[in-house]
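User: Predict EAL domain-containing protein's structure from this.
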Amino acid sequence: MNRPNAPKRDWVRVKPGERPVALPEKPEYDDQKLLTLLQSAKRELQGLRLIHLHLSLLKDKSNLDLISIKRAMQETADNSSYLQVFNLSNDDVIVLYKGIKFSLISDVCSKIEKLLLSRTTMTKQNPYREDSLYSIMELSLNFVSVIRFIEGLQKGESGDAPVEQTKPPITLEELGKIERAVQMFDLSPFMLNQPVVNIQNPTENEYEYFELYIAIKALEERLSPEFDITANRWLFSYFTSQLDLSVLRALNYGVDFLRGKRLGLNLNLATILSASFVKFDERLTTDLRGNVVLEINKTDLIENVSMYKEVVDFAATRGYKICIDGLNDFWVTHMDLEYMACDYAKIIWSPDMESMTEEEVEALQEKVRQQENCRYILARCGTVSGLIWAEKMGISLVQGRVIDNILRKSVLVRDALKTAQVMNDD
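Assistant:
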């Protein structure tokens, strides 16, 4: 009997005498399986890489997400000498793989992230202090931290962490209101600058350049206090592109701010190739262009590699400097910054970096020493321990609250670093 309004069903053929097997509501967890595998393979880690999908951070989760992820990952297995997916008890997914191009893996992960964040949001940053639903890492350089993470799940340390209470994510309608308001709004009170300082200069505080940025949270409290502008990554990316244009309009009123000092501008790749930037560029002399550092976020670069190449050619022709922002120790170790043709690379400071293994430290130090044309900046450095870490790694440029506090007290950054090192040794 046909029932046009009846819900669709998935029919399973069952032989006579057999009973249908009930499907499990949740897949089995692979914590112990993964831990055993890693411990048995610790001497054969060369070439093994790991993808950590932070599904536990999603506001709304579904078992269908896991099925979709496994299907997407298995489709790449044909290009791999090894690939295995593990479902963890905190709802995260870890993928071990070998022999797949990094560009292919990052493309698959980016598509998964877009798919999941199109219907829900992340509740907070991932454990690696990134606003990303996935992390990719070389297993040999992160072996101890991965083992500790899985052992922590078994001890119940990370499985049922309380969800942070946040404001609701901004809606498209609300974003439209903000966008119209920004066009008639004076952004100058929200345009801040923060210096990048050379910690090696023993005689004076040497400023490499000043990063100009918009205080997003302050702007949010002023224009949309009921919503979280940053919660929806895709709407926030669109919003920042509109902010870029507002900043360029404000800068077009005068270029005297560039005389005698360098300025870093946080801009999307699309903005740099837009007519608004061309108008800004036309107002600058060759000397002034040499004082502008174009800061490009790592995520924007990965999602728009071809556009980045155009920006590199444009910057080289016009005389701008390029800085890749938002890196961590993994990205620094594995990204060929000489090939990326950038002048600066920003590593985001995290206290977790103090627990790096000797192998991780040596790999990062070697990478820093190898760079001839690119200078590293330790950014968002809020503690003196970050300064000590930068010195240890051979990084001479630092930016963050700790630098701001030292400068506010009219103290030489180099002297403050020496004092911190003495106290740390004691």
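Residues 233-251 form the longest helix (19 residues).
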